From TrEMBL:
Cellular localization per UniProt: Cytoplasm
Listed NCBIfam families: tim
Active site as annotated: 96, 168
UniProt GO molecular function: triose-phosphate isomerase activity
Keyword rRNA-binding: no
Pfam families cross-referenced by the UniProt entry: TIM
Keywords assigned: Cytoplasm, Gluconeogenesis, Glycolysis, Isomerase
HAMAP family per UniProt: TIM_B
SUBUNIT field: Homodimer.
Any one GO cellular component localisation term in the record: cytosol
Biochemical pathway: Carbohydrate biosynthesis; gluconeogenesis; Carbohydrate degradation; glycolysis; D-glyceraldehyde 3-phosphate from glycerone phosphate: step 1/1
Gene giving rise to this polypeptide: tpiA
InterPro entries assigned: Aldolase_TIM (IPR013785), TIM_sf (IPR035990), TrioseP_Isoase_bac/euk (IPR022896), Triosephosphate_isomerase (IPR000652), Triosephosphate_isomerase_AS (IPR020861)
Protein name in UniProt: Triosephosphate isomerase
Amino acid sequence: MRKNIVAGNWKMNLTLQEGVALAKEVNSRVAATTTKCQVILGTPFVHITEVVKTVDNAKVQVAAQNCANKVSGAFTGEVSAAMVKSTGANWVILGHSERRAYYGETAAILKEKTDLALANDLQPIFCVGEVLAEREAEKHFEVVKQQLADSLFHLTADQFKKIVIAYEPVWAIGTGKTASPAQAQEIHAFIRSLISEKYGKEIADDTTILYGGSCNAGNAKELFSNPDVDGGLIGGASLKADDFLAIITAF
Ligand SMILES: O=C[C@H](O)COP(=O)(O)O
């Protein structure tokens, strides 16, 4: 179901104590607003159990930043989708460009992770987006289309309804360089049109599509005012309660 979502991705930041303190502050400040926006905290694995206990689980929910592409067994260091679900998290971020670039996560691996997340009742926030050279070569539409086709478009319509897409141009992540509102709208509308071609207009209209990449308190309002931008996946600015709250209340 389409809704406004602001999801923080803490990445590899904050100790457990710092993370719990931040979650506590975000939770109480969100509760004090009238926002209808779904807030999600994408925490490191080791924080999840404590953060789940800290938030109200309605307005503020918790995401893992990854899960394994295997069910269980001898995979040292990995965390399965079933384990994530057992902590109380409802969401998992998959396909982030940092996972693709630094940990060799291919489209085939991401397809397996998506299937396991859904089988364990976790909702994927699935990231797509092009690198700078691809944008400069005007290949961004093609790249995003391929990423969706390779890792998501095998899903049934009922499965696809659980997916949230995050469009994150890699050149905008952590760089302070944001896609312009027009650039974001253009590609979000394109993503929605691809979903419509594959699953029909009703499902496309119901899909939540987030923007990620140097989204902050200063630019969130303008980005979110676009008809096909339903919220954001926020990295750096999710680490400070003031900045994150300003983004949450930007709708
Ligand atoms: O997952 C979040 C994105 O990578 C955006 O990160 P950023 O807001 O620090 O640019």
